[in-house]
Amino acid sequence: MKIWLVGVYDGWLGTQPRVSAECSSDTPPGPENSPDVAGLIPLLRRLVGARVADPAVAEDLVQETLARVLSAAGRVEPGMLEPYAIVTARNLIASLWQEKDRHRRNEHRVVDLRPPQAPDEDLLAREEREAVAQALARLSRRDRDTLLAHEVSGQDTKSLALELGSTAGAVAAQLHRSRARLRVEYLLALERVEPVSDRCRPVLLAISGGDRRRQREVDAARHLMECELCGRLSGSLMERAQQRDDQMVIPIHADADIVAARQAARELATRLGFSRTDLTVIATAVSEVARNIVRFAGVGQIAVELLDRPRRGVQIVARDTGPGIFDVEQALSDGYSTYHGLGLGLPGARRLMDEFAVVTEVGRGTTVTMTKWREEG
Ligand SMILES: [Zn+2]
Questions:
Q1: Other C-beta atoms within 10 Å of 236: how many?
Q2: Residue 17 C-alpha to ligand 1 middle, in angstroms?
Q3: How far is the CA of 49 from the centre of ligand 1 (A)?
Q4: Distance from Cα 79 to the centre of ligand 1, integer Å
Q5: What is the three-class DSSP state of 37?
Q6: What is the pTM of this model?
Q7: Which residues are found with C-beta within 5 Å of the ion, ligand 1?
Q8: CB distance 233 to 88 below 8 Å
Q9: Fewer beta carbons within 10 Å, N or C terminal of the chain?
């Protein structure tokens, strides 16, 4: 078995390079990615203990809060974990009381034997439909039409871009913002509430879009603590934000897929505001690794993912289960090309990207992981 690792990762893979025959896409270890959730326990025990008399119930609530904080940790800026934990615990306690309240109401209903006006489920479905309609009505016409064409009619970003006189990347970014806004407006409509201050919407939007930079800019952490409404809505927004739309996986088996991979990388990278030159560089590197899959492995996939730690960037993982590369050093040396000067090959992709690693095992396959960081400023 021969495994090669080429290239150096700074920081986020830790000081020890991880060498494995397949590259997993889970969150790499490192201090930045292991928020001190355990450190929240004393605070939460105090907070819950003061409101819930039963120690077993209180401990359940603390554990449930921690679970929710952990699952949201990747989507919020680190300074927001404590406020989020506090509002989550408060919300859980409130819903516990509501639950008891509903039991009491239902008990009452059983006793007086009056038939319910309408089954609860029908009522809920109708309320949801109305909330969706109201939320859609609050989007701009352009956002609404684009979102509906994409989500309902399945029109792709490229053909939408043609119609709108825009680029596929810009349309993807617009769709991302529209979805985030729709989630916010939907919740407001469902709860039949209006924001209590003009700070609410920007905060809710930053949470809904999973945009940590915006969360810092609008000081979402402080607002969550001060605003009862946003504290209450943030939980569902964070849960919804887990449905990630900052990554794409493109199966590769023919030349046409190379184009699709190129476009996907460009679309996602556009959202981070990469320069036009960088977008071309990224797309070109993706073409090279995709072409490598088609030529040498036949079948594989390319995953494109946006990163925001330690900086904002785009990461591409190209994976195949082909024959593997027998001599990686030779395959990566400049001027070496197995397909006679066509394209830049792996050495070209390596030069174009900021980080580049190849893990290959003869007879098992190859994984190329490469990252381009966005210049800040
Ligand atoms: Zn608010």
A1: 16
A2: 43
A3: 26
A4: 18
A5: coil
A6: 0.46
A7: 200, 227, 229-230
A8: no
A9: C
The answer to whether 76 touches 213, Cβ cutoff 8 Å, is no
Q: Is residue 75 within 8 Å of 27, Cβ to Cβ?
A: no
Q: In the prediction, which pLDDT does 224 show?
A: 86
Average pLDDT for consecutive 10-residue bins of the chain (377 residues)? Answer: 36 29 34 62 88 80 80 76 87 74 46 40 66 85 86 79 86 86 87 90 90 88 88 78 67 82 86 88 90 87 85 91 83 62 73 88 87 84
**150, two tokens:** 């994409």
Amino acid, single-letter form, for residue 353: M
What pLDDT does 99 receive? 62
Rounded distance, CA 351 to CA 166, Å? 30
**Which two tokens mark 191?**
């709860």
Check if the beta carbon of residue 40 is closer than 8 Å to that of residue 82. yes
Distance 229 CA to ligand 1 centre (A): 5
Q: Which residues contact 114 (CB under 8 A, 6 or more apart)?
A: none
CB 61 within 8 A of CB 92: yes
Q: Are strands 355-361 and 300-307 parallel, antiparallel or unpaired?
A: unpaired
Predicted pLDDT at 101? 57
Check residue 353 and give its pLDDT. 93
**What size, in residues, is the chain?**
377
